[in-house]
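Task card 7
Instruction: Convert sequence to structure tokens.
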Amino acid sequence: QVQLVESGGGLAQIGGSLRLSCSASGRSFSSFSSGAVAWFRQSPGKEREFVAAIRYSGTTHYANSVKGRFTISRDNAKTTVYLQLNSLKPEDTGVYYCATGSGIILSSIPSPSSYSYWGQGTQVTVSS
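Output:
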């Protein structure tokens, strides 16, 4: 099994930046056949929403709301995935979760139900 641990959340000002990390232990991300690692976020009273993903091939995908501001990447060992958050807005506030799984086809990337493993989340708060 794999355990996912997110870190790097905190309080940021509007227009500021944060870098989130998702570290895997027990298994590397590359061990998931046709897998992907994604970031989701959830704020109070709202459903969990897709933010960004990086597939086994290295291709990346973003929600329209974060395109051009957030960047997802991974380390060469494929045990850590990063999410760089720039030009932060108040609506970026929420708990950010990383998730992974196998056999994730392109059309299912934004769906939380496509992912079998989840971290505990890290809080991001954007305030003036």
